[in-house]
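Troubleshooting: if your tokenizer reports a length mismatch, compare your output against this known-good record of 408 residues.
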Amino acid sequence: MTALPPIAPSGTPRWRLPDSARSPHPAAVLSGFIVAGFGIALTQGGASAVIQDQVRTLDTSVDMIGYTIMAYALGVVVGAPLLMVGLAGWGRRRLLIAMSAAFVVTSALTALAPNVGTLLVVRFLAGLPHGALLGTAAYVGMLAVGRERRGTAIAVIMYGLTAATIVGVPAMQWGSEAFGWRATYWAVAAVGLLGLVLIWAFTPRVPGTRGTTFVGELSALRGRALWMSVLTIVTGFAGLGAVQSYMVPLLEETNGFRPTAVTVTLALFGIGMTVGAAVGGALTNRSTLLAARVGLFGLASSLLLLGLLGRTGWPTVVLLVALGAFVQVFSQSAQTRLMDVIHASPSLGAALSHSALNAATVLGSGLGAVLIALGLGYLAPAWLALVGAIVAIVLVMGAGFRDVDPAR
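Known-good structure output:
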């Protein structure tokens, strides 16, 4: 049952709240979030797809570009909790519009970066609105479809991210070869602008957290259950950051794939993520604990086999697809878990999940860059990620995750 407000408060200027947002339809509300998610997946996932062209045009190395990927993730880690706590009193519509506008601007600045040093700074700034945008979208999406289907709401929004991995990220890889990586980030800015328009057109007014102070909002970030969940997410998702960040050189240099085969592989990886999002949403509606266990055991198995068979050509592709699927199963449980744990401020919980996910990317891609710089090859990050997945499994099987009544 939807919990969205049916109308705008009287006296709201029409330009600030169009008719389409006055009596919102859940599908229309979610459409803007899907496009926003598509754009965010392009700017983050596409970084690994254009890495080879950036190395050439910026006269740098793969491990240095890896640090720019890490800088984006670090921006998410910092921005998600600070923006959600600092702007807790903002209406959710206003916050979504502001974060979407910031996404468009930073995407354009990425395209204009003249050197790798500037790119490092810009990518950190680009990561700041990521968690607040997707976290708020997850909360409003949950209101749109009803709290009892919150796993489905998150999965639908994630379809924008997974669609980007099927179509957008391979297109960025192809576009970087054909037109240069800067052109691909101008395309990302255009997608972000479309998302901004849809959010403006369809998102209704949803109040923020009223009557709370900055310190009061920070008090929501307490408790053993919360931080055990965050630790589980960070260790479990290190595999995605460690492997996905260097997927293109793994395929091209370790397995000898040509760019067209890499494009196909990236699309297949996205299909795996889409299937995982659908399965994860259904499992999460039943039990966050069940979805977490399925996702993590599958993730660990995929990483183990990737470490053993990652030089064998097309079997490597199959394992990458499986990795994408199981990562998404775990993703649905992770986001829902934090929304349930921080039940007084679920949008903060959803944003914090993105902070934790990107802390994992910082950990995975950063340590992966170190291993590559030491000459250990592009499979070394998979073994590193396996260790993290095993730690996450131990936490989930112990006290890391528990099902929480979302209506409490």
